[in-house]
Structures are given as C-alpha cells and as structure tokens.
Specification:
mainly alpha; about 85% helix; about 0% strand; single chain; disordered N terminus; about 325 residues
Length: about 325
C-alpha cells in the first residue's frame, strides 16, 4: 500500500509539473504571438486578394490550401531552422530579425508608394493565366504560400526572440509550434470569415424579414472594412518593422535612434500624467513608424535597382549552367 501511495504521489507530482509546463507554454506562446502582431495583421489583410475573381464555392477551399501551405512553412521548414539557430547560432537571431524588420518596412513603404501613385504594381498575382480557372487557382495558391513564407519566417523569428534563452529546446519547440498553429488558425479563420461575409450578407438579404437590413448592411460595409484592414495592416507592418530595426541597432551597440525615441516617450508620459503608459506607447509607436517609413522608402530603389538585378543575374547564371 505504501508503495502504491508513493507511486500515486509521484504521478501527481509529474502531473503538476506537466500542468505547469502547459501553462508556461501557453503563456509564452501568447506573449510571442503578440510580438508578431504586425506581420499577422498584414497577412490577414493581404490573403483575401488571392480569392478575388473565383466563384463563392472555391473561396474557402483556396483559403484552406493556403492555410495548409502556411502550416507547412512554419512547422516543417521554419521551426527546425529556428531551433538550430537557437542552439548553434543565437547571435544570428538579432541580425535576422533586423533583416525581416527591414523587409516589413520595405513592403509597407512600397504599398504606400503604389497607393500614392495610384499604381497596382503589387497586384501581379491577380492577373489571369493561360491555364484557365484551375491554373489560375494553383498559381494564386503558390503565390500566396510564397508570400506567407516570408511573413511566417518573420513571425517565427520574432516568437523565437521572445522566448527566454534558458528554456529547454523541447520547450522552445512546443512554444513555437503553438504559436505557428495558433496564428495560422487565427489568421486564416479570420480570412475565411472575411471572404464569406458578402455571401452571408446576401443570404440574409434574400431571406427577407428582420435580418434583411443586417444583410444589406454587411454587403455595404465589407468593401470599406477591407480598405481599413489594408491600411491597418500596412501601418502595423511599418510600425513593427521600424521597432525591430531600432531595437536591433540598440542591441548591436548603435543606441540611436532608440535612446532618442525612449527620451521622447518619457517626455510624453510626463506630459500626460492621467495615462502615462498609453502616452509613452503611442509616442514610441509613432516614431518607430516614422523610422520605418524612411527606411522603407530608402530600400525601395535599393530593392529594385540593386537586389532584384542581382537575383536575376544569379538565376540567369545557374540557368545557363543547367
């Protein structure tokens, strides 16, 4: 009996440890996921474009295909790379974060540039292909998954950087897996709701009765909602990208503009004693965003006149050898 009680006590102790580990994983995954908000919002804003022009019956299947590709990107490709980085080259995490942050600034600034120029140069994925509807669907899905890979890499790197260095490798793997599944489910679940909102509103309208007005309201509101979501997604990209680069420079020993922004945030907090935390946060986000816009605008000509030709030359070299 004493042996049995001792065994039960050990099992109870293991269960408590397991429960604490689950709570720790969930808590850290939530914090890590929150850090990646900018990339997540942009992902949700961009993805609905990929189902544009298809029948209502194909919208959710296309979103599901993109979601599966996103999960593959995060769990099969990026998670092992993140763990290898954490184990063997943790010093690379900050530079990689800064590269990802710079890319977010570039993407956001390019969207602003095209919007101001009334140019849809970023919408090449919306063109029709010779392969017909099936070929167009597959091409759209591939394009969406490629775009998702870049955003997913940024999400996973941000999440990895938010995990304490002392955590065991299995704990990091669990946290990253929870972040990957949770963010993918949230983003593409939200996208599915967005792309079906018009159909739902039309259905309510056609049914008539007291819900008809609600249906008409949904159909009327959705185009404006999508524009607002796009603007918010772009702003979030620039803000998060700028914040990542500013903080990365500070970590690497270049303390400006981090210290100047921090000083301005403290001044704002003192000027608004009723809500010092909110004032400091808004000020920091504003100046991080300004930095992100400036950096992104600088990177636009660099990307188009230096990076793109260099990539094209490398591809041409390998193609010629093949």
């Amino acid at each position: 009996m004493s042996g049995l009680l001792a065994l039960l006590d050990d099992v109870a102790g293991i269960a408590k440890i397991a429960a604490a580990s689950v709570d720790d994983v969930a808590g850290q995954a939530a914090k890590a996921g929150a850090k990646a908000a900018g990339a997540v919002i942009d992902d949700a804003a961009v993805t609905p474009k990929y189902v544009h022009g298809f029948s209502a019956a194909r919208e959710v299947p296309i979103v599901w295909k993109i979601a599966r590709g996103s999960l593959f990107n995060k769990l099969v490709v990026l998670l092992p790379i993140a763990l290898l980085l954490s184990a063997f080259a943790p010093w690379l995490i900050t530079p990689l974060l800064m590269i990802g942050g710079a890319y977010l600034c570039f993407e956001g600034a390019e969207k602003i540039f095209h919007a101001l120029a009334h140019d849809h140069g970023n919408d090449s994925h919306l063109t029709v292909t010779p392969g017909g509807a099936a070929g167009l669907e597959e091409e759209r899905v591939r394009g969406a998954i490629k775009t998702d890979f870049i955003l997913s890499a940024e999400i996973m790197t941000i999440a990895l950087a938010a995990i304490p260095n002392g955590d065991a490798i299995w704990m990091k793997a669990l946290i990253l897996a929870v972040v990957a599944v949770g963010i993918t489910a949230a983003v593409y679940g939200f996208v599915a709701l967005i792309v079906k909102a018009d159909d739902f509103g039309l259905h309510l309208h056609e049914r008539g009765g007291p819900t008809a007005a609600l249906g008409r309201g949904i159909v009327h509101v959705m185009p404006g909602f999508m524009k607002v979501l796009t603007v918010v997604g772009t702003a979030a990209m620039i803000w998060v990208g700028g914040q990542i680069v500013v903080h990365g420079l500070h970590v690497l020993g270049q303390h400006q503009p981090y210290e100047w922004i921090h000083h301005m945030a403290e001044a704002a907090a003192q000027a608004v004693p009723a809500a010092p935390g909110a004032a400091a946060w808004v000020t920091t986000a504003f100046f991080d965003g300004i930095f992100g816009v400036i950096l992104g605008m600088i990177l636009i000509p660099v990307a188009h006149y230096v990076v793109s030709p260099a990539i094209g030359a490398v591809k041409g070299l390998f193609g010629a050898r093949a």
